Amino acid sequence: MNELSPEARRAYELDRAHVFHSWSAQAELDPMVVTAAEGSYVWDGAGRRLLDFSSQLVNTNIGHQHPRVVEAIQAQAGRLCTVAPQHVNDQRSEAARLIAGLTPGDLDKVFFTNGGAEAVEYAVRMARLHTGRYKVLSAYRSYHGGTGTAVNITGDPRRWPNDYGSAGTVHFFGPFLYRSAFHSATPGEETARALEHLDQLVAFEGPDTIAAIVLESIPGTAGIMPPPPGYLAGVREIADRHGIAYIADEVMSGFGRAGRWFALEHDGVVPDMIAFAKGVNSGYVPLGGVAISERIAATFAHRPFPGGLTYSGHPLATAAAVATIEAMRDEKAVENAAHIGDTVLGPGLRELAERHPSVGDVRGTGVFWAVELVADRASKEPLAPYGGTSPAMGELVATCKKLGLLPFTNYHRLHAVPPCTITADEAREGLAVLDEALTVADRHTTGWGL
Ligand code: PMP
């Protein structure tokens, strides 16, 4: 606190006096002041530079302050700041065209929202109206947003205190080999057993009552668990068999994070809807949306869609999306994410796992990696309780920050989720910090569990 510049100190004190923060015990917070950012780095209130291995909230896929995106927002602000959703707005039209071009299959219509939770809300509403059914199936290991239905279908502990009014939400276990709910030994076994479980769940819930299966193509905040090959295709098959809408939540995994425009490309799957946000414009202006198949969209061809938002397709937000998508394309940011994952982050994190007993598992793809920390490798006891935190995790974060790295942590996991545009040297700089910081976590483990 003492080292903050006078401007940063004033911002901090006003924040503590008046700002009510997300998902936090307000009196126990000591938030970091961020004063500037560029590329893969942010600067704190004391003027220190930190490598942003969090991409803020896993959204600055194109990096910070990309000049093309900043200029597009500035130009649009000078031209036209707001247009009501019932009118045509050229930036919304162009963003929708670009997004429809990136999504697989015939997901050619886009409904814009202000973020990810709203995208999930609207996708579920469309599925319910399209099918005339009400139940929604989603994974325990998931996060779908902080609003009504989105938080109810979320599986992670953030649902617990919000778990009322959730009639019709049913959770299932997705595939996760490291902590398999099915005692599987191989990815093939995990795929088969997780699909068998979902199939049975659908049968017992009554297929004719199920409107949608909502699934993160790679669950993100809940642990970055790329599904084993064939799983998403199997979900598609189950949904098709029963006339259930398959909603892919790509809010975190989309727009390059997984080394593809959408993570479901890894399995070649076409869902009925894709919920997106974050990376669509790297969070420079709030934006989300739902890409909708022709079949679902046709439900509302002559029947009014009962829903809308004042800021649906806001000009500043969609101008930022157009510039972001075009710049990512021109600069091959998605290819870079895949390359960094394959050649630096993946091998580097696995190498750290070999030397640090606190690392139980490393998994991911692109710039979307989880390091799962354990108190004991043999028992896989997490370094923080499910839904909680621990002094060990606190020390790990503090050490990373002291060494110039801003990590993303959740419970007993550290997520390495830098911008898609990160260079190999920057990624190696992050790995070097993690190497040193993990020695702190190692002190809280019982060695190699031997
Ligand atoms: N779905 C997923 C997969 C997410 O990761 C998030 C946000 N972390 C959301 C939905 C909710 O998005 P938002 O916070 O923009 O409402």
Automatic annotation (TrEMBL):
<keyword id="KW-0032">Aminotransferase</keyword>
<dbReference type="InterPro" id="IPR015422">
    <property type="entry name" value="PyrdxlP-dep_Trfase_small"/>
</dbReference>
<comment type="similarity">
    <text>Belongs to the class-III pyridoxal-phosphate-dependent aminotransferase family.</text>
</comment>
<dbReference type="InterPro" id="IPR015424">
    <property type="entry name" value="PyrdxlP-dep_Trfase"/>
</dbReference>
<dbReference type="InterPro" id="IPR015421">
    <property type="entry name" value="PyrdxlP-dep_Trfase_major"/>
</dbReference>
<dbReference type="GO" id="GO:0030170">
    <property type="term" value="F:pyridoxal phosphate binding"/>
</dbReference>
<dbReference type="GO" id="GO:0005829">
    <property type="term" value="C:cytosol"/>
</dbReference>
<dbReference type="InterPro" id="IPR005814">
    <property type="entry name" value="Aminotrans_3"/>
</dbReference>
<protein>
    <submittedName>
        <fullName>Aspartate aminotransferase family protein</fullName>
    </submittedName>
</protein>
<dbReference type="Pfam" id="PF00202">
    <property type="entry name" value="Aminotran_3"/>
</dbReference>
<keyword id="KW-0808">Transferase</keyword>
<dbReference type="GO" id="GO:0008483">
    <property type="term" value="F:transaminase activity"/>
</dbReference>
<keyword id="KW-0663">Pyridoxal phosphate</keyword>
<dbReference type="InterPro" id="IPR049704">
    <property type="entry name" value="Aminotrans_3_PPA_site"/>
</dbReference>
